[in-house]
Amino acid sequence: SGQSPDFRCGQYANPRARSGLRLMRDDQRPFFRLAVQQAEAAFKITAAHPLFFYWMQDPVAEMNAYRDEGFKYYLLGIFSHFAFNLFCVVCAVVGFSKVGA
User: Fold this and answer.
1) How far is the CA of 72 from the CAs of 36, 78, 100, in angstroms?
2) What is the Cα–Cα distance from 23 to 63, expressed in whole angstroms?
3) How far apart are CA 91 and CA 85, in angstroms?
4) How far, in Å, CA of 36 to CA of 6, rounded?
5) Cα(73)–Cα(50) distance, rounded to whole angstroms?
């Protein structure tokens, strides 16, 4: 009937995948919503408030990777702000030393 019964999500081929990680990215939500709409039309079901998940083996490791990446950008921001402040202080010291002379 034109329907593809082989929908695959996340690590579908991994026999050790037994958990999911909830979708939090808004830019991917329309694609997940489209899959829900197709399922609603094909199977005559309704899903008023669906929850979307990525099927994966180790969501804790994925969350740790997100945390590590966030911490990396946090440190980058701190050191960039420190470098900018140091530059501003050096410019102020040089500027005020020339004004006072």
Assistant:
1) 35, 10, 42
2) 12
3) 10
4) 15
5) 32
Instruction: Please work out, in degrees rounded to the nearest 5, the angle formed at the alpha carbon of residue 90 by the alpha carbons of 85 and 91.
Output: 95
Task: Give yes or no for residue 101 having a pLDDT over 90.
Answer: no
Taking 80 as the threshold, does the pLDDT of residue 4 lie above it? Answer: no
For residues 41 and 73, what is the distance between their CA atoms, to the nearest angstrom? 43
State the amino acid at position 59 in one-letter form.
Answer: P
Q: How far from the centroid of its chain's Cα atoms is residue 10's Cα?
A: 15
The owner of tokens 């037994």 is: 18
Contact 41, 87 (CB under 8 A): no
